[in-house]
Every structure is written in structure tokens, then in C-alpha cells.
Amino acid sequence: MQDIINTAEEHLIHTYNRYPLVLEKGEGVYLYDNTGKKYLDFSAGIAVFALGYNDKRYNDALKAQVDKLIHTSNYYYSKPMAKAAENVTKASGLDKVFFCNSGTEALEGAVKVARKYATKRAGYNEEQPESEIIAMEHSFHGRSTGALAITGNPKYQKDFRPLMPGVKFAKFNDLESVKALVTKKTVAIVMEPVQGEGGIYPATKEFIEGVRALCDEKDMLLIFDEVQCGMGRSGAMYACQKYGVKPDVLTTAKALGCGVPVGAFVVGGKAKDVLEAGDHGSTYGGNPLVTAAINEVFEIFAKDRILDHVNEVAPYLEEQLDALAAKFDCIKERRGLGLMQGLEFSVPVGDIVKKAMDNGLILISAGTHIIRFVPPLVITKENVDEMIAILEKSIETSL
Ligand SMILES: Cc1ncc(COP(=O)(O)O)c(C=O)c1O
Known about the structure:
Layout: H1 2-11, E1 23-27, E2 30-33, E3 38-41, H2 44-47, H3 56-68, H4 79-92, E4 96-100, H5 103-121, E5 132-136, H6 145-149, H7 154-157, E6 167-170, H8 175-179, E7 186-191, E8 194-195, E9 201-202, H9 205-217, E10 221-225, H10 239-243, E11 249-252, E12 263-267, H11 288-303, H12 306-327, E13 331-337, E14 340-345, H13 350-358, E15 361-362, E16 364-365, E17 370-373, H14 381-398
Parallel strand pairs: 3-15, 5-6, 5-7, 7-10, 10-11
Antiparallel strand pairs: 1-2, 2-3, 4-12, 8-9, 11-12, 13-14, 14-17, 16-17
The structure holds pyridoxal-5'-phosphate.
């Protein structure tokens, strides 16, 4: 194991503090390292692997597409691309989609839609009007310079200035703080319906409805970033559907492809026809291989009734996390939506996460004090019991 780690450390830019763990294969909700040790996975590759590992149907769909056609440029159509576009627009309830390669890129695209909407709103005058976007404190939208500019975390931004201008940050779940930032230039509001990296904070219904009404009133676009909370994790295909609020632009990635690099932004209503030929592009975006993966993900979601499963198992996870929180003074709060849950501790959680790994459980944190639970959506109640037992032991021995 150590030789692999040494080679990686010698040649990779050290942008991650990785755990000393070399993963080799996955089966269902379990991962195995290269010594054969088994781990229950409650992180799913950071909210990606919704279906569990090594699902034969998914693997076979990818293999079949590999043998047919992996890539062709966006100058042509392919059957998987057309089907995936239909799947994503139907699932989101929006009109048109652009496929890209990651969540970050999906946000970049959404920002471009917003910027161009300002031009459209001004009546396509010669000069592009200055425009502003309101994003949320503690949000996370990616690390490229545009996505980073709308990410409300000074820690990630501080060494990479100047970032894209024209961004202001409001307080999440505080409608008055959003209203106070709106000017004539404001063209869009971007937010995660459930903040993920920022610490698992679901939006309140009043907030999300208030922001929608504000966007309607001031002719601004509402952009929902559902890269993490989307694709069934909330118990609805997209979390905004749990709130009954529709955005103008929605970004999706992670579990959309369940492991192949893919992202998308979907537009509807007044955002539907903003981008035109020549406005945006991607060499790989929506190629036959990744869109075949997307289509199989949607097939399996329907066949296995994944949403029903999430709605059945998520309340049990909440119950068990609440019971755990009641046992330990160091756990301050549980919060979340569906199978996207967080436990906030009064102490840093790094040691607990490491202990859990030693004990055969993979967890991730969100910030220093929060353990984030974003398991494969196929976990069972027995898996929840197993996770709680390991976590309890890990907390006890870390304190
Ligand atoms: C809400 C949200 N938006 C955007 C991103 C960036 O996605 P990616 O890492 O696929 O570029 C993430 C990643 O964690 C995310 O959680």
C-alpha cells in the first residue's frame, strides 16, 4: 500500500490531504482497499455513487456503449445524447439542457446564462450591461475562477483574487439580507436548496419561496445548484421539488452520471432561449459514453423505485442520528434533508472520521465540526444500524 501512496505523493500536486487508504473495488454499499479490508461507505464518492458499486446493469450499459461509440463531437447527434436530454429536462421539469463535464462547469454555464440574460433584459443594446449576481454565504459551487467567485467561503477564495467581479453575498435563509443587496444590475440569485460543503443547511420553505418571488418581481433568474442535493438525494428527483419551487436554471452533476464525469445546466421559462449557437461549448460535453451512463442511471432509478426507497430509509437515518445525538453531549445538532444529513459537533471531527475509517466506515466531513452523511441511495436500514454502531464506537474512543 505504502509504495502506491509514495508514488502518488511524489507525482500529484498536493491539493488534497488524502487519507492513507488505497481503494481497489466496490460492491453495493461497500468499498475494499488493496489489502482486502472492507468499508461501509457513507460518502458515496462525495454524493456521487447513488446506485451502489458494481451494479451490473450500469456496468453493462457502459461496456455496450464503449463497444459502439465513446465519443463524437457536438457537431453531430447521438441516440444516448437525445435520450439523456429528454431524461434530464423531464426530471427537472425544465425545458432545455446543456451537458458539460462536472458540477463546476455546470455553474460556469449557469453564470453565463445569467450574464447573457442581462443583455437580453436590456434589449440587446450594443454595450453589454454590467450585471450582478447574488450568491449565499457558506455556499459551495466549485473551484474554477467563476464558480469560486460565487462560492461564499473566503478560505477558498483568498489566494486567487481577482475573481470574477459582480458578485455579492447574502445570508442563507435570510430573505431581508438578499433583498438588501438587490440593485437594478442584479440579474440572478444562485443558491443550493440544501447547502452541502457549507455544513448541510436545508433552505427554509419561506426563504426559497421568498427568493423565487423576488426573482419574479425584479426580473432576475433563480439558479438552483443541485449538484450535491439533486438526483434523488432529498427524496425528490431534485430537492427544489420537495419545496414546490421551480428555478429558471438548475445545475446537476455527481449522481447524474454515477461515476462518469458529467454535469449539466438545465434552463426553463425566461432562461430557456438565452443561449444561442456559438455562445457555449464543450468538446466532451454530452458524449455518447457519459449520456449512456445517465440514461442507465434514470432506468435504474425508475425500475428500482429509488425515490420511494430514499423516502423510506431517510426517516430511519434521521431517527438513528437523533438518538446518537441524544447520547453524546459533543453532538450539537442534526440537520438535513433525505439522505443528505449532517451532525454538528462541538469538537473538530477529524479524529472521529479517522477512527471510523480504522473501524471500517467511510465518512466525510463538511468543514471542521460537521460529519456529513451522503451514502449511496440504496442503503438499507441494516446499513444504517451498522453505520451507527461503528460511529458510536468511534466517537467514544476519540473523546
Ligand atoms: C453544490 C455543489 N456545486 C458544485 C460543486 C462542484 O462540482 P464538481 O466537483 O463536480 O466540479 C459541488 C461539489 O462538491 C457542490 O457540492
